[in-house]
Amino acid sequence: MTATIHRLGSRPQPSLDPMVRLVTGDMNSVNAVILDRMQSEIPLIPELAGHLIAGGGKRMRPMLTLASARLIGYTGNRHHRLAAAVEFIHTATLLHDDVVDGSDLRRGKRTANIIWGNPASVLVGDFLFSRSFELMVEDGSLKVLKILSNASAVIAEGEVNQLTAARRVDLGEDRYLDIIGAKTAALFAAACRISAVVAERSDRDEMALDAYGRNLGIAFQLVDDAIDYVSDAGTMGKDAGDDFREGKMTLPVILAHARGDAEDRKFWKDAIEGRRDSDEDFAHAIDLVRRTRAVDDTIARARHYGRRAIDAIAGFADGQAKDAMIEAVEFAVARAY
Amino acid sequence: MTATIHRLGSRPQPSLDPMVRLVTGDMNSVNAVILDRMQSEIPLIPELAGHLIAGGGKRMRPMLTLASARLIGYTGNRHHRLAAAVEFIHTATLLHDDVVDGSDLRRGKRTANIIWGNPASVLVGDFLFSRSFELMVEDGSLKVLKILSNASAVIAEGEVNQLTAARRVDLGEDRYLDIIGAKTAALFAAACRISAVVAERSDRDEMALDAYGRNLGIAFQLVDDAIDYVSDAGTMGKDAGDDFREGKMTLPVILAHARGDAEDRKFWKDAIEGRRDSDEDFAHAIDLVRRTRAVDDTIARARHYGRRAIDAIAGFADGQAKDAMIEAVEFAVARAY
Question: B96 to chain A: which residues are within 8 Å by CB?
Fold first, then answer.
């Protein structure tokens, strides 16, 4: 007997809905923890945090904690508090990211830094980060604390790495992968892994869930970066061309630059260094990434990591949870079209 | 037999030197941990962190952890790593503070945000904060993790409280004390208390050290706020008048405003709301705080908290450590003159 072999792309319109349905009950508990623990006597804190937390995010990371717990048959409720801790780390990161990037729009809404200013965003981010550690301490697992404090340090390192790589057109694919592995995939990996820790499963199960989350995280980020060169404004609550106009080095640019002729390379250098950011420039950029198949191949890379994510959980029992986690991967890589 | 009763002000020129000497050997170990754990493969991280960490700070908070350990006769070395964690939390807070305040000078040197920009300061602060939790997790005490994660959340709350209180001339003394209790005294308290935790001493000893740190922290901050209205540039690596020009509400202003006549109050309102920040305005402010005895009485408040700090450790054995901790309090309140 062989396990069912799952293929990416067999489903015509994959969706996150099965995963959302799988964890609905658990997510209500997580949301209750989030709502309770973002409170403070200082009114600006819940006001600002609530703007982002209630602001229509997918709750992807806590959802992964909950789905992973279902996959391995965990029946306790420790993961509710920890999923909230994961979401707080993510929210703190978003608040600081938007300050760092000077962003004015996230998930289709004005960013907190635009509404309340950079100082408030920095400080409320710090507060949520501290709260996330308080939640972990209440749970009491030093192993979970180790995994999430390490993930937090890696995220910050990845963000600094990205900052020092900004506007450098010669950034290679390896360094780009280092950056997204740290700033995005590390928390996806940790979010999945901690379910195996609270369920007291083997190291092998822990690492399998870690690998699922990490590869899914890389696939997610690759597709996000591809979407910037294909989508209409609003698809992800993010404007197409945002990355381009900010001179952000992402894989579509890395590939289009590497595959272009001398004139194309000059265009990319000028664009990434901030000398070309008009609508016509962006239209030309779209044309170049299409002609060099840079977007298609960014998606192809994402499919590779997506396949690895699916294979990482092949050893777990088939069922609703596994199906939902596989379809989440398919959704992640199919979003661009 | 009665314990020796220590009086504030009996020593003509109190100094931090006895405490520095008391902990020299331990501090070398702490510095080695700090230097080791601020490293990263991303060169900007140790570069930026090192600028502040090597930048001539007094290492007041880790010094308090070490002195407290000596006071209670702890003979292990777990507190070295934890003192480094405390300093990392403090450094992260300073990096974010300078971004929030737009400061350009700290300890007489240009701030990191001026040299490397706000984004790098925010992200390296996040990194150091994560590293501090990694150090605590390595130590493995959930109680220490609880104390320091709670202190971190309280600090962030205090900073947001201060932000929302900015430029409000009607801020009362109570709210001011809430703010400095959170943003300064909470970490002083935690730094002292964790020594009793690793030494496995009684709750009473823990709370005595907590009270020593908390009251010393309040005294320290009160005197810092007084110094802004008396010192020449350079005394603390901080320019006299910085708080005034930023419209910061501190106790000297609260008292001078409350004790002034209608004309004085109008002056303070204009100044705090940002409409009077010239050198002549500052000279007039100095004159007002002197005439209303606002600085003297800020120092008197500091002496009150200083006395409470000294009384909090009265129950511990007399000796070198206790003498050094008492003189540190005397130093804290005598700095202004």
Answer: 122-123, 126
Cβ-based neighbours of B204, under 8 Å, separated by 6 or more: none
B45 vs A41, A146, A157: nearest CB? A157
Angle between helices A60-71 and A24-37 (to 10 degrees): 130
* Per-residue model confidence as pLDDT tens digits over A281-295: 999 999 999 999 999
pLDDT given at position B326:
98
CA distance A74 to chain B (A): 24
- Nearest by CB to residue B133, choosing from A118, A123, A133, is A133
> A117-150 pLDDT, tens per residue?
999 999 999 999 999 999 999 999 999 999 999 9
**Residue B185 at interface with chain A, using a CB cutoff of 8 Å:** no
Contact A160 B96 (CB under 8 A): no
- Cβ of A124 under 8 Å from any chain B Cβ? yes
pLDDT digits (tens, 9 = 90+) for A14-28: 999 999 999 999 999
Q: At what angle do helices A78-101 and A44-53 cross, to 10 degrees?
A: 90
Nearest beta carbon to residue B140 from set A96, A142, A164: A142
pLDDT in tens, B166-188: 899 999 999 999 999 999 999 99
DSSP A17-58: HHHHHHTHHHHHHHHHHHHHHT--SSTHHHHHHHHHHTS---
Contact A134 B123 (CB under 8 A): no
3-state helix, strand, coil in chain A (%, to 5): 70, 0, 30
Q: Which domains does chain A have, with CATH numbers?
A: 17-334 (1.10.600.10)
